[in-house]
């Protein structure tokens, strides 16, 4: 009897998980209906406080987290040696201390592919909003600034016959190019860790150095991962090489951009406009200088924010977690 009780406790511990936020119901349902899975959740729309995170992860075998949760050595120490699987509800993983996680033999699941289309759609929407000055124009209607038709009033820049530069021709970069091509884009340039001819063929895209992409592009769209090589790459030198009529869009990670340099470029007319779905920090303080500019459109990191996409992400994150706990192949595992 004693041995049976110990076995039951061990089985329960093997499927104990901590979920760091209120996630779409479909994902939580996958976990709660899994045999033997015991779920503890920070049931709020707001991020879990650090103390609650450290307490919640203690003794757990699995952790389902978000990109806003910093999973570092302190969290891993608080979890203890029982932690075997981390599943992040994101395609990005720069919030995870991967070296430390690898050292401890913890498996990691993530959610690529499923948010590609939603993020690409948002990237195009942000580009159009910035280049055609849509928020600024809408505000003129509300404030009474719309008085009569004027030949040069609210003029922006169109995509027809333009050159578009994409930094990072991965899944999202390709999906952005695929959506922009029908607008009549004349030429696609791209840059990254190396040429990707099989990816570029569909768009006739040319692999070029970052400096040339900056100099020749009418529109620059950033869709790369955040790495030591890409951190701060869009800086004073980069913006200084861009055309005065060019538009810059970032839907990757805020830290790819030096925001002070971007502010100077926009404020002094070095580039025409910018659209950002990601910033540093997030949320961006309401008194940040970028928010004072009419030629900068900033969104609250909503690239994947469609109901269908978020539901699919939650289910995938849950299935990654369960597969890892069972010692099975994950639908999407990050190879460390």
Protein traits:
13 helices; single chain; 37% helix; D-isomer_DH_CS; Glyoxylate reductase/hydroxypyruvate reductase; 336 residues; hydroxypyruvate reductase (NADH) activity; Rossmann fold; alpha/beta; disordered N terminus; 2 domains; seven-stranded parallel β-sheet; six-stranded mixed β-sheet
What can you see in these coordinates?
The chain is α/β, with parallel strands linked by helices and 336 residues long. It folds into two domains: 15-112 and 308-334, Rossmann fold, CATH 3.40.50; 115-298, Rossmann fold. Helix content is 37%, strand content 14%. The protein is built from 13 helices and 13 strands. The chain has helices at 2-14, 25-32, 50-57, 73-79, 98-103, 116-131, 134-143, 171-180, 197-200, 210-216, 236-241, 259-267, 307-325; strands at residues 16-19, 38-41, 62-65, 85-88, 107-109, 163-167, 187-191, 206-207, 219-222, 247-250, 273-276, 296-298, 333-334. The strands form two sheets. Strands 8-7-6-9-10-11-12 form a seven-stranded parallel beta sheet, with helices on both faces. A six-stranded mixed beta sheet has the order 2-1-3-4-5-13. Strand 1, helix 2 and strand 2 form a beta-alpha-beta unit. Helix 6 packs across helix 8 (171-180). The longest helix has 19 residues, at 307-325. The protein is elongated. It starts with a helix and ends with a strand. Mean pLDDT is 95; it is low at 2-9.
